[in-house]
Amino acid sequence: MRGMMSDILEVSPTTMYIKKQRLLTPGPTPLYPPALHAMMASDMHHRTADFIQVYRACLADLKEVMGTANDVLMFASSGTGALDASVSNLFSKGDKVIVCVAGKFGERWADIAKAYGLDATLITVPYGQAVAPEQVEAALKAQPATKGVFVQSSESSHRRRAQRGSHGPHHRPHRRHLRRRFHHRPRQPCPSISTPGASTS
């Protein structure tokens, strides 16, 4: 704890202040001072009432941030852990999927899909561009047995935001089949292995 505080705080005979630290994975992202202060506190056991209260508050705040009344999930992993868990829990070897690739994290979706033996159709555009909804629509028409579409909400390797809201109407005709397939699918344990992403179905 003392070592961590010395990294965060600078102390002189007359003043003590917090360094302006930045996260660079990706970034630069300023670190919220109250969050730094919270990390200085003692650890909270995950079965205590205090932790449960904090956890529920975090889930409620995440719903507000994401603009949803539906359930949200928190992963004790880096972003790739969430990508891996979505592929390994919702798909089986040989399933047809569409992967939107516009940068490093789209490439990671493709790598994970390949590692799990999915039959992936890649929609690839140059770095700095976004996959257009019309490209997804064309791919869905060409691959009617598609079980899912992978797209990240923002490709932070080059700061390009995907037109994810515009993809929805093109997925809608396929959703009845997708929901029917996944409704009775037994869940496997989620691996906790690393960047923001979303699986749309």
Structure description:
With 201 residues, this protein is α/β, with parallel strands linked by helices. The protein folds into three domains: 1-42, no CATH class; 44-74; 79-200, Type I PLP-dependent aspartate aminotransferase-like (Major domain) (Aspartate Aminotransferase, domain 2). It has helices spanning 2-8, 33-39, 49-66, 79-90, 104-115, 133-142, 164-171, 175-183; strands spanning 9-11, 16-18, 22-23, 29-30, 96-101, 119-124, 148-151, 154-155, 160-161, 198-200. The strands form four sheets. The protein has a four-stranded mixed β-sheet, with helices on both faces. Strands 1-2 form a two-stranded antiparallel ribbon. Helix 4 (79-90) packs parallel to helix 5 (104-115) and helix 6 runs parallel beside helix 7. The termini are far apart.
Q: What is the tally of beta strands?
A: 10
- What is the architecture of the largest domain at the second tier of CATH? 3-Layer(aba) Sandwich
The first-level CATH class of the largest domain is given as Alpha Beta
Tell me the helix content: 40-55%
Give the mean pLDDT: 77
How many structural domains does the protein architecture include?
Answer: 3
Strand content bin = 15-25%
Describe the strand arrangement of the main beta sheet, using strand numbers. Answer: 6-5-7-10
Given as residue ranges, the uncertain stretches (5+ residues, pLDDT < 50) are 176-201
